[in-house]
């Protein structure tokens, strides 16, 4: 573990916060000392919140250079603990996603990477969630623990090769302060602030390289494909300047990924993937992200070798065994993996009927996620693991009037109508078949 050092001993005259705000507002570039001073002042609570907000807004409008962003990311990383995984001889690769509906790829890729000899640390931050998080999905496993100390995290990575836990408060604490501020000041979409945040957190986890899944569309907080491409380029460029290997895929999130949205339902679909089965779109994305992970780690040299490595570990059961090892290490009951019937089942299942004949033209994935979240959330704020939707009809599918667009699994009748408003509105049917969306839009390396 490495702790942030104090400001460099060389003379540095501390500027006023208003000067720094004005400098960025006018398009100026911060020096290394100024960035270090900003990060220290946020950590020590010396910068008032109103000036932090003004600074965030100035960065939002004027941006930051790759050099500024790299220094900013490194200083945020050093604002807390940095995990030392150097005693683990295997390659260490992290995976980051901007969050999407029905995205259960992390549940598959972490054990898959471990089976292939790649260590994958996964701390799930709030910025990787779109309504329903990876941790929500894992919580469908009875007794599963998602919070652990850093020492235990390192021990599990050493023994198992993967761990999926909630973001530790000692990892990049300045980023946590800034993220909350960005939520309240409408500056979440700032490319340098996202880039700095991603790299600060993921590199604090001890990763040597990073594979990024930048999602765009109505099921992501990045709605514009060009902005998604810019973010992919920003993270990979700044990552390289920090001497880390980075690859990004820009992927479509204008419909749910896979056939289910929920917690236990999505986990069961992830288990299918780990048996070499499951929906085509999910298989395709797992294959492509998995290939990037093993190539970046140096486990596979060529594209063909990477593809064969991923497919082998999915088909021979070694990746599934790693999922069991991870769940067992985190206190979970692995019997649900062998027997999915042990997962909780909803009392009611009903179809969402197609209002007319036609083709599924568009789907608003965000509305489906919100509808499921509304239906699943209990009075204490927790998600009912049995609740969700399955058998989702995808874009381009032909349906007859009354045919199910999806199956709804629920327990609470009182929430059904409100949820149905979202689910019905999510679908638009048309008489002509639309062109199917391209899942992977661009690769940036």
Automatic annotation (TrEMBL):
Keywords: Glycosyltransferase, Transferase. Its EC number is 2.4.2.4. One of its GO terms (molecular function) is thymidine phosphorylase activity. GO terms for cellular component: cytosol. Pfam families: Glycos_trans_3N, Glycos_transf_3, PYNP_C. GO terms for biological process: pyrimidine nucleobase metabolic process; pyrimidine nucleoside metabolic process. Homodimer. This is thymidine phosphorylase. It comes from Rubellicoccus peritrichatus.
């Amino acid at each position: 573990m490495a702790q942030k050092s104090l400001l460099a001993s060389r003379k540095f005259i501390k500027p006023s916060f208003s000067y720094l705000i004005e400098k960025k507002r006018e398009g100026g570039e911060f020096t290394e000392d100024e960035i270090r001073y900003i990060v220290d002042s946020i950590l020590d609570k010396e910068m008032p919140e109103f000036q932090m907000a003004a600074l965030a807004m100035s960065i939002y409008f004027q941006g930051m250079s790759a050099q500024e962003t790299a220094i900013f990311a490194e200083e945020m990383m050093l604002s807390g603990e940095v995990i030392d995984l150097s005693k683990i001889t295997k390659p260490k690769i992290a995976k980051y996603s901007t969050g999407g509906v029905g995205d259960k790829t992390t549940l598959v890729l972490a054990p898959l990477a471990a089976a292939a000899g790649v260590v994958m640390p996964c701390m799930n931050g709030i910025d990787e969630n779109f309504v329903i998080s990876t941790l929500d999905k894992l919580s469908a496993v009875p007794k599963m623990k998602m919070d652990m100390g850093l020492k235990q995290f390192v021990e599990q990575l050493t023994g198992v090769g993967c761990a999926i836990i909630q973001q530790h408060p000692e990892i990049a604490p300045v980023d946590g302060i800034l993220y909350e501020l960005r939520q309240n000041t409408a500056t979440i979409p700032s490319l340098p602030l996202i880039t700095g945040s991603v790299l600060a957190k993921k590199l604090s986890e001890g990763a040597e390289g990073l594979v990024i899944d930048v999602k765009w569309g109505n099921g992501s907080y990045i709605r514009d494909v060009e902005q998604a491409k810019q973010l992919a380029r920003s993270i990979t460029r700044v990552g390289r300047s920090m001497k880390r290997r980075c690859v990004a895929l820009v992927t479509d999130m204008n419909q749910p990924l896979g056939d289910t949205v929920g917690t236990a339902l999505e986990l069961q679909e992830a288990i299918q993937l780990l048996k070499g089965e499951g929906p085509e779109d999910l298989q395709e994305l797992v294959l492509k992200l998995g290939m990037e992970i093993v190539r970046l780690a140096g486990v596979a040299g060529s594209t063909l070798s990477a593809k064969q490595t991923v497919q082998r570990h999915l088909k021979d059961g070694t990746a599934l065994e790693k999922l069991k090892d991870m769940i067992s290490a985190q206190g979970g009951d692995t019997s649900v993996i062998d027997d999915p019937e042990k997962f909780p089942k909803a009392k009611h299942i009903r179809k969402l009927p197609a209002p007319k004949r036609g083709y599924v033209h568009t789907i608003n994935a965000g509305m489906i996620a919100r509808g499921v979240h509304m239906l699943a959330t209990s009075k204490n704020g927790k998600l009912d693991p049995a609740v969700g939707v399955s058998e989702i009809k995808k874009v381009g599918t032909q349906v007859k009037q009354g045919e199910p667009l999806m199956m709804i699994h629920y327990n609470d009748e009182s929430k059904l109508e409100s949820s149905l408003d979202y689910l019905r509105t999510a679908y638009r049917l048309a008489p002509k078949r639309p062109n199917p969306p391209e899942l992977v839009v661009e690769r940036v390396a």
